[in-house]
Rap1 GTPase-GDP dissociation stimulator 1 (Chrysolophus pictus), 477 residues
Amino acid sequence: MSFPIYLDWDRLSTLLNQNLGSSKSIASIVNTLTVTEQRTFSLIKESGIFLSLAKILKSNPRCAVKAAQVLSEIAKNDEMKKPCIEADLVLTLIPFLESTDQDMLLHAGRAIGRICYDNRDLQEELVKVGVIPSLVRILTDHAESEPLVHVDLLALCNLADLDTAKEALSKTKVAEQLVKQLRRAENHERLEIIFEVLQALAENDALKVQLVEAGVQEVLSDILLRLQGSSQAEDTCVVKATSDLIVSLLLGDGNCVRMVQVGVIHQLLDLLEKHVESEDISVQHAALSALRNLAIPVVNKVQMLEEGVAERIQALLRSEMPPMQFKLLGTLRMLADGQADAAEILGQDPMLLNRLVQWCDVSDDTDVCGEANRLLASILRHNRSQEVVKAVQEAQGVKHLVSMTMSEHAAMQNEALNALAIASAIDLGIILLKVLICESQLVQSLHKLLQDGNTSAEVKYNSLSLLCSLLNSGNFI
């Protein structure tokens, strides 16, 4: 924004300093702020208008609203911000955020926001002098005023990345107000601003809990439900932002459980099924990350299994996109963790086991290969039944678990060793033992692990446990 060169800014400044400025004369300034050439900025800076406006704000309440409006227009241009700061206009404007006049709140808020935009030091100063409670009060008292809410949300958006702002916001009821605004938001621009604020606040544990207590998950669930059938690019962006926020909010079992209880899990799966063949994987990533985290609490595992989530995830594995395969496999592993019934269901599905063995052979995507191996090991570790061991052996999965014992990751080594120890303890006769010992060269692998000075104590312990299990089988030769 710039200003007409024909304005006599020196004369205007003199008039203002002589207290001849009136509401009418300042209004004329607003009406004549139009596009012009660069040299106007120099004229404005040299005129002393900033100090004059500061005086009006401090001593002439009748003209303060128009003065704030002038400043909000001037501050649109980056070159005008520095003289505003030098005239101490930000601190002069802050008390007006307590005004009951909506026009004053609007113009003062705009002016402060524009002057402080992208100025971290000044933003920190705003928080320090107590601007946060004022912003939350405006959002509370004027929740139906679209212009005020817009300005207020922009201010929160600019400040929310600051740790000091998050700390100050955690002592207010901002979560409740933001959820209300999210619920009533009707356009993409408003949703985008609110999501940006919420994402920043979700980095703070106290605010994250407050958002869940305010019912943000129900609103997010409604948004997913409303937009899941849309193919519009803007709606897809909102869906992705919603899924990302769900991921960010998954702090602690309580939050995850509430998310599952309101039906978020099936809306995420509906979303994935719709986008399974899409080339835009951003939505898939967000939804899959949310699914995996939701599968961590034990109570969620049970509910998700009862509602057929495992079957729906397996159906999604038809995707040929490695990132999606990786996260789907990780979600299944989370569901099987500590759940014998889930491990049995997965372990007796020949199609799934064959697909896992295929992925274990994949050399060009180590993430998918590793996750497939870990899921095989998890199935054996958490079920321990003869039928599952037979199914894994028949699918030729045992050799991959043996290879997994030599992984560079100790966690994967231990998972493989424990799975093999369980398999060897199941009395399947000489056929399984031949696979374990002769074809897989398991003993050689264990020997290397025990000799290697870099092998962790836990891996060595599990290696010895596996050897003992083999020896105790009665068929070890």
